[in-house]
Amino acid sequence: MQPLKLVVSGAVGAGKTTFIQTLSETVVVATDVEASEDIGKTNTTVAMDFGTVHVGDDLLFLFGTPGQERFDFMWDVLCDGALGLLILVSGIKPSDFRHSRRILEFISTRYSIPYLVGVTHQDHGHAWAAEDIASYFETPPEHVIGIDATDLASCKSALTSLLAVIAERTDLQSPV
Ligand SMILES: Nc1nc2c(ncn2[C@@H]2O[C@H](COP(=O)(O)OP(=O)(O)OP(=O)(O)O)[C@@H](O)[C@H]2O)c(=O)[nH]1
Ligand SMILES: [Mg+2]
Known about the structure:
By secondary structure, the protein is an alpha/beta fold. The protein is 34% helix and 28% strand.
């Protein structure tokens, strides 16, 4: 069976690399290097992350994009043929919400693929909740989920929700 390709995107530090590292059953191919400018953390992804995970009999390929805008050209490379998109937003970085919303609008329009928004850092007491981000992004609340990207059960739950969104969209597009 063909592996299913999913893309994980979002702003710098949203938790893309962490999410893929938490879920992957194989050693993650990561391209993190020391950031050459002040982005609020030491390392950043410059090309992609790649990991794999099974859900039932399905093999999923997880591709993570870089967060910095200067690497936006990687989106075309990584989103080609993708079945679904997970946009991660850090729930403790409200200063990034506007940029994250732009990423969601740009990427979902350009590639027209089903998406789920994951609000990370839910293990921090003061993180923004999924329903608040849904309202800010003007996105149906069922398409936004809170995540702790360091926790396997939480990442699996997000993956299951994304697969449900993909299945829902596929059903809608199937000829009757
Ligand atoms: N506690 C906690 N830490 C998180 C969570 N998500 C990410 N982090 C931490 O946040 C930092 C940044 O996470 P990364 O996974 O590198 O973020 P990224 O989106 O890949 O960032 P770029 O590649 O620079 O765009 C790391 O120290 C992670 O451990 C979360 O849900 N909970
Ligand atoms: Mg990264």
